[in-house]
């Protein structure tokens, strides 16, 4: 049985129509994208006895979160071996038959745990050439069947949670938010884990198909592991930049909630994955609060009104259903 989601069959009309009209018009192609020198923080310095070293590392992290909304970290506490193992186990689960992956309760996941394409897409712009397992951290332990995958995911989630806390503490302090806010509002069980697979895309040369459409993350902070293929791009000053794979590094990006909490100081930056002719994997940990947690802008005058995480998610979902895109923080501007 085939493991590949039926992208071409299901989206035949959408693909043909969009590719024809866009090719004729010559619009919406990806711009020329160059790789960026994403700031890279060596977290070994965070634990240094040398105060100057520590402070300089903290400054790098804060500046990257302000100017880029994205940075990379090395010496983050998760070994390359561990990350490679995650990729191997991830690959195995995606290799299961498609008919099995779409079954309700596959691996004992809740409904909508397995996602592919975008059933609601009306144009190519809303369509992602990828499949993913998206699950709450608290559901990892009840996963059935793939024992090794579960163990690796548990280890990754635990390490990513520690890493997210270290970074959030540094970033919060700099904008006058006490770390206790996170300790009280973000229990490890409220975060999410997402395993992404980007199948080789036969239309990648058209430069019109995305592996993952442009979006910002709905969380405080994300920890991302990408394999060596490349394709992740971020938007900076109106231009797209590629994030060059670095096997030793994890990618950190600021999410919408931290932009709101920091009153716009830290940037939740749009990013996307372009489709290529190669299979690609990534794993993302989304550091989130509990549903009822309130997010309030720290700074005067406040840019955003206070909202709960639940309200933010509901509004985003409604916007996606009605407009095809998330809209996001703009909805909460004062
Ligand atoms: O695949 C990647 O590199 C990024 C994934 C991502 O942005 C996401 O899952 O939100
Ligand atoms: Fe993302």
From TrEMBL:
This protein's record includes keyword Transit peptide: no
Classification via PANTHER family: 2-OXOGLUTARATE (2OG) AND FE(II)-DEPENDENT OXYGENASE SUPERFAMILY PROTEIN-RELATED
Listed Gene3D superfamilies: B-lactam Antibiotic, Isopenicillin N Synthase, Chain (2.60.120.330)
Single GO term (MF): oxidoreductase activity
Domain of life: Eukaryota
Pfam families: 2OG-FeII_Oxy, DIOX_N
Organism for this UniProt entry: Ficus carica
Keyword Thylakoid recorded: no
Coiled-coil stretches: none
Protein name as it appears in the record: Fe2OG dioxygenase domain-containing protein
Protein family (similarity comment): Belongs to the iron/ascorbate-dependent oxidoreductase family.
Residues of the Fe2OG dioxygenase domain: 188-289
Swiss-Prot/TrEMBL keywords: Iron, Metal-binding, Oxidoreductase
């Amino acid at each position: 049985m085939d493991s590949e989601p039926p992208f071409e069959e299901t989206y035949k009309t959408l693909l043909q129509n969009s590719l024809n009209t866009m090719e004729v018009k010559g619009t919406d192609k990806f711009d020329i994208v160059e790789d960026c020198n994403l700031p890279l923080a060596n977290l070994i310095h965070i634990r240094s006895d040398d105060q100057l070293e520590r402070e300089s590392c903290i400054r790098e992290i804060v500046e990257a979160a302000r100017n880029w909304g994205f940075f990379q970290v090395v010496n983050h506490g998760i070994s390359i071996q561990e990350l490679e193992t995650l990729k191997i186990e991830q690959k195995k689960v995606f290799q299961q038959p498609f008919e099995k992956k779409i079954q309700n309760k596959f691996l004992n996941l809740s409904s909508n745990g397995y996602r592919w394409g975008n059933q609601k897409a009306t144009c190519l712009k809303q369509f992602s050439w990828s499949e993913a397992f998206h699950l709450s951290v608290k559901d990892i332990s009840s996963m059935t069947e793939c024992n090794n995958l579960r163990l690796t995911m548990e280890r990754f989630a635990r390490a990513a949670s520690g890493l997210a806390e270290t970074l959030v503490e540094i970033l919060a302090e700099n904008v006058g938010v006490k770390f206790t806010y996170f300790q009280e509002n973000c229990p490890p069980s409220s975060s999410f884990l997402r395993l992404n697979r980007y199948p080789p895309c036969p239309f990648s040369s058209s430069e019109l198909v995305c592996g993952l459409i442009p979006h910002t993350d709905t969380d405080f902070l994300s920890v991302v592991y990408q394999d060596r293929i490349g394709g992740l791009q971020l938007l900076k000053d109106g231009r797209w930049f590629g994030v060059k794979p670095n096997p030793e590094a994890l990618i950190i990006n600021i999410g919408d909630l931290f932009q709101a909490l920091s009153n716009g100081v830290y940037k939740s930056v749009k990013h996307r994955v372009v489709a290529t002719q190669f299979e690609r994997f990534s794993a993302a940990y989304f550091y989130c609060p509990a549903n009822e947690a309130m997010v309030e802008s720290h700074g005067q005058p406040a840019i955003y009104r206070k909202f709960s995480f639940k309200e933010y998610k509901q509004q985003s979902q409604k916007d996606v259903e009605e407009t095809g895109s998330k809209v996001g923080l703009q909805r909460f501007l004062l």
